[in-house]
Task: structure prediction
Amino acid sequence: MSESTIDLTGLTIAVLGGTGPQGRGLARRFAQAGLNVVLGSRTTEKGEAAAKELSEAIGKSVAGADNAGASEQGDIVLVVVPWDGHGELLKSLAPQLAGKIVVDCVNPLGFDKQGAYALHVEEGSATQQAFGLLPESRVVGAFHNVSAVLLEDPEVTSIETDVLVLGDDREATDTVQALASAIPGVRGVYGGRVRNAHQVEALTANLISANRRYKAHAGIRITDV
Amino acid sequence: MSESTIDLTGLTIAVLGGTGPQGRGLARRFAQAGLNVVLGSRTTEKGEAAAKELSEAIGKSVAGADNAGASEQGDIVLVVVPWDGHGELLKSLAPQLAGKIVVDCVNPLGFDKQGAYALHVEEGSATQQAFGLLPESRVVGAFHNVSAVLLEDPEVTSIETDVLVLGDDREATDTVQALASAIPGVRGVYGGRVRNAHQVEALTANLISANRRYKAHAGIRITDV
Result:
């Protein structure tokens, strides 16, 4: 199986933390690509409210739930929650996430007067933390460097960026590459094993630095691939 | 001053570790761009031999010296040595490197059966180590992700990649961006402060993973910049 032959039709994509800009933006793009999407949030009420708002904005039905409900409904579950609380949430959702592809999209970053910087993560990276906490899941890292501003902008029809997909499970990374490539302009590119996730998460700090310097919404492309 | 108005004419670029593939490749491209280049190596003899070989290969005069001599001659000094011994070398060259722009290009990587991975660096990154050891120099990080194979290939006339340039000294990063942009196809892009160098160095492990998967010489482009 390779990425190009993977059929995502009928799959449900759950987005935990789907009420933040990055989660909302990804949910928007997946729904527009014709996938079933469920937005998860801390409470059912918040998840449903965000889903209703997104559904109305894009004219496509998006479901809402709490994070546990969204985890149960999703075939592929994206984790787009704040770094603070990331480990605790995943630990609590381990039963619902068992057997599923879990895509960690979290960038552990700090901010000060000099801009963004990578936080020290005991396990090495958010993806490695998820990998350790969810031994029954198929953990992949992806969607770290995609601008939330572009994802949420209805006038942006194509997003010129590659998504580096990290994981030790080839079928899972192939599937997530296909999911990334479902967004017009985006290409899912294999970026290495889970142990090499840290630098891709942290690279977001460099893109934020470039954004400030160039007044841009920087993304990355991998050349010669 | 901005990158585009910087005139590199007449400057001498020293390449420490200029006998390895990455150093040789960068020296080749800078010489071809019309810059004065001096290759540094552990001994004068080795530096001169490598310079002679490169001069003959490209039909342009390149000088050779030991690393201390090259450091003295260079206006901009690139550090392209193995990670093992990096700190010791820089410490010993601190007097020669005082007042100069020192461009650290080193990627602290390990390799095993599963491929490349980022090594833990006490100071955070090679660039941060250089920054700490060379308080009298203007330390910049750059050229981490450029394929040595492409740099050394005489049939490759344009290298499609961006070079992320990291540093806290604006004039120095502007100068190094201009230096990167002197290589056809390459663009120097500001990538943040010294504290954000680690992930750019480590990203080379991801590109090596992509190289294996796709049989490529992967590089990066920063989009929307």
Chain B touches chain A at residues 114-118, 147, 160-161, 164, 166, 189-193, 195-196, 198-203, 205-210, 213-214, 216-225 (CB under 8 Å). Chain B has a mean pLDDT of 96. The helical segments of chain B are 21-32, 44-58, 67-73, 86-97, 126-133, 148-152, 170-181, 198-214.
